[in-house]
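Quick review question:
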């Protein structure tokens, strides 16, 4: 019997090894060749595509078009499936890959008709931009063809790899609009529904300015003074957890040369996005000739587009944070508003087609909110939304050159932070901004619609070389209070993060790259200190019962540190209080297909006003008093933590509760491949409302610090590798340095691979 069992176990091991060998064998067929020679009719002169130990692509070419070809070739080799998802997501074409499971998302995206808009915009671009996109697309397709075999994602889905087209690069930029600006019109919808269900006073109360204001000119918005509105018609029900919308945004800041030892300006930029495998950005350096001069630009590119998004040409260095100006309005249609219906066919894998019917108007696509028709007028629907003007930043020699480009660039509006080697530093809003003069967070009557929506605003605020030598943004209001009335609030961050960055910048008089990196990793919990004090006072009312929690709070380290249990208690307690206070409102909005999700980050000032004044109508029906309500919030906190992590309080440490988990999209569907596909997990470090932003799969998608003219100490750290292929030597390259906070160099190191593509002639 023992021999039989032994043989069975041996057979299982052999079969396991054999199946593993088959998997690795199939995967190895789709590994790209990183060395060799080739020919193409798409290049005019030879193009070199080299890679260093991190897999950073170094492109050497004679012209910008040939450089675009080389970048496309590298993207096609390393990231085609990611690019395919980006274009399909924006176009509403994921169902062709994933079947009916993606239909809901595709219909949501087809509402915007971005494939058609990309095709129209492409035809209007200057010939030079069309050729740039064509060269890039040819590079993508030839890089993909060089691989020879479809990547495992296509083998698993059974889908075909469709060639890259020029319009697809515009769709990739549109994908960033969806990621960065959809919360703006979703927030407006929630505010419209709140006004209708409650009052305009309720809207003003919930969106009142906070004490965390960090505008660059120091201006403050007028405080809310209309009193606490009555909260009517609360009903007893299970408390709902109100999801918080992740802040698609970033930190950036800069100092002038007066505050650096080199005399050059210095910029820091870390863009906060959802993180998956592969990470969204791709390290690259482009070397090419322009007007008889050598250009070298180094930074991160977005696979699918031919530009360096954030980086430096050694004359200037630049970075972005999401601007959150008001770039969308819901137009309330009247009986005279003309509408019409169009059908959007959505392809499925088996060749079948699902038709999605869409109502259009002269103002934009139409949606029914509380059974009334509203048209969405959004910057992404306008002709100026997308173009190739970002490439012009590569030729800027000074801050002034970069500022001159900003108003014409077709991307989602960003806070451009730019410095130059001469010591200047500046901020300006870059990207599409509607020229209409009166933005609204509530609906606009059709009779008041402005034709200026069809024009891009060219006159926009900027600040150059402030007297204090410091600039900062963090997705909160950066413009003056006066300009805020003109450009509106598209869902600004609260301002706690920006305030902390500003305050840190005034703690020093001289800065080096290491100082900026330390600020990027600053996880001090300044924002939660009032919540810590509130909870500690509450628990000390019964010291015997709450001693272990009191001990955790007294040793919370005042930071989102991985070993802090006290931080977890305070963070979860705040969430529980908000859920209890607003659960009835969330329930009411849910009945109307709405949610407070996009308003939740506005609520902090209102919540403290409620806590301090304790109005009776804001007591949740399941409690009898405010004291009982606040105690109930902590009880719910403990219950949920116990359900999720057990009753051992040591397992409630923030590093475990907020563990960094960066996964491949297919890993959840195929757990057996998770170890092969995912990045290693890492202890949580950081949170919202502080410079070191990090969630379980969200955070700084790159960390960039540079002084143009002095790039030997410049930093670029990314939470993942260059290649999307799990067997590639670059699949996880750089991840451990990112997690450990090491100073990963921006500039390429020793080159270890090289492909040369020569003209066919």
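Suggested answer, residue by residue:
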């Amino acid at each position: 019997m023992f021999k039989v069992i032994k043989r069975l176990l041996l057979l299982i091991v052999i079969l396991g090894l054999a199946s593993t060998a088959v998997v690795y064998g199939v995967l190895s067929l789709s590994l790209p060749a990183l060395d060799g020679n080739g020919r193409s009719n798409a290049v005019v002169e030879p193009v070199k595509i080299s890679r260093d130990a991190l897999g950073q692509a170094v492109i050497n070419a004679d012209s910008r078009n040939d450089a675009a070809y080389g970048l496309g070739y590298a993207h096609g080799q390393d990231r085609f499936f990611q690019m395919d998802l980006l274009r399909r997501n924006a176009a509403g074409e994921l169902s062709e890959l994933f079947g009916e499971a993606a239909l809901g998302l595709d219909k949501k995206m087809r509402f915007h008709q971005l494939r058609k808009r990309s095709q129209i915009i492409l035809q209007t671009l200057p010939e030079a931009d069309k050729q740039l996109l064509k060269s890039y697309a040819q590079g993508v397709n030839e890089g993909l063809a060089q691989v020879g075999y479809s990547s495992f994602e296509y083998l698993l889905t059974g889908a075909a790899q469709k060639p890259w087209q020029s319009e697809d690069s515009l769709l990739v930029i549109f994908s960033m609009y969806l990621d960065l600006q959809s919360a703006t019109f979703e927030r407006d919808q929630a505010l419209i529904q709140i006004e209708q269900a409650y009052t305009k006073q309720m809207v003003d109360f919930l969106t009142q300015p906070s004490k965390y204001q960090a505008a660059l000119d120091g201006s403050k918005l007028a405080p809310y003074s209309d009193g606490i509105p009555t909260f009517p018609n609360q009903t007893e029900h299970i408390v709902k957890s109100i999801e918080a919308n992740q802040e698609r945004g970033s930190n950036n800041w800069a100092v002038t040369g007066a505050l650096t030892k080199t005399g050059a300006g210095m910029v820091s930029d870390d863009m906060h996005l959802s993180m998956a495998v592969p990470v969204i950005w791709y390290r690259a350096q482009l070397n090419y000739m322009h007007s008889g001069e050598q250009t070298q630009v180094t930074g991160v590119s977005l696979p699918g587009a031919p530009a360096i998004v954030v980086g430096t040409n050694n004359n200037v260095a630049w970075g972005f944070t999401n601007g959150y100006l008001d770039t969308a309005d819901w137009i309330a249609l009247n009986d005279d508003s003309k509408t019409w219906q169009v059908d959007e066919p959505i392809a499925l894998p088996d060749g079948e087609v699902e038709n999605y019917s869409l109502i259009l108007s002269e103002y934009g696509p139409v949606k029914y909110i509380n059974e009334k028709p509203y048209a969405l007028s959004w910057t992404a629907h306008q002709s100026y939304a997308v173009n190739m003007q970002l490439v012009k930043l590569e030729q800027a020699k000074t801050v002034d050159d970069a500022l001159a480009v900003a108003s014409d660039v077709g991307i989602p509006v960003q806070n451009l932070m730019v410095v130059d080697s001469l010591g200047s530093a500046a901020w300006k809003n870059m990207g599409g901004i509607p020229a209409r003069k009166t933005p609204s967070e509530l609906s606009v009557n059709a009779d008041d619609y402005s034709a200026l929506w069809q024009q891009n605003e060219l006159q926009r605020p900027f600040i150059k070389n402030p007297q204090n030598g410091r600039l900062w943004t963090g997705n909160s209001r950066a413009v003056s209070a006066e300009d805020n009335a003109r450009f509106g609030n598209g869902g600004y961050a609260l301002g706690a993060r920006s305030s902390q960055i500003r305050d840190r910048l005034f703690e020093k008089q001289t800065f080096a790259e290491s100082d900026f990196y330390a600020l990027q990793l600053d996880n001090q919990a300044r924002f939660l200190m009032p919540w810590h004090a509130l909870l500690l006072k509450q628990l000390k009312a019964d010291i015997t019962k709450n001693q272990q929690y009191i001990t955790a709070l007294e040793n919370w380290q005042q930071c989102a540190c991985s070993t802090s249990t006290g931080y977890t208690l305070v963070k979860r307690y705040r969430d529980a209080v908000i859920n209890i206070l607003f659960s009835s409102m969330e329930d009411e909005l849910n009945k109307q297909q709405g949610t407070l999700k996009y308003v939740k980050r506005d609520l902090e000032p209102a919540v403290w006003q409620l806590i301090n004044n304790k109005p009776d109508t804001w007591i949740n029906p399941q409690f009898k008093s405010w004291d009982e309500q606040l105690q109930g919030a902590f009880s719910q906190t403990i219950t949920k933590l116990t359900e999720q992590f057990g009753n051992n309080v040591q397992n409630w440490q923030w590093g475990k509760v907020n563990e960094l988990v960066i996964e491949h999209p297919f890993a959840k569907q195929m757990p057996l491949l998770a170890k092969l596909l995912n990045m290693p997990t890492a202890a949580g470090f950081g949170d919202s409302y502080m410079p070191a932003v990090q969630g379980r799969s969200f955070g700084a998608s790159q960390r960039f610090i540079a002084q143009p003219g002095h790039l030997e100490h410049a930093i670029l750290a990314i939470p993942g590798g260059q290649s999307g292929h799990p067997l590639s030597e670059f699949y996880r390259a750089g991840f451990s340095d990112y997690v450990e906070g090491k100073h990963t160099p921006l500039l390429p190191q020793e080159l270890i691979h090289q492909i040369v593509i020569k003209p066919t002639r």
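Why it works: Confidence is low (pLDDT under 50) at residues 11-22. Residues 661 and 680 are 7 Å apart (CA to CA).
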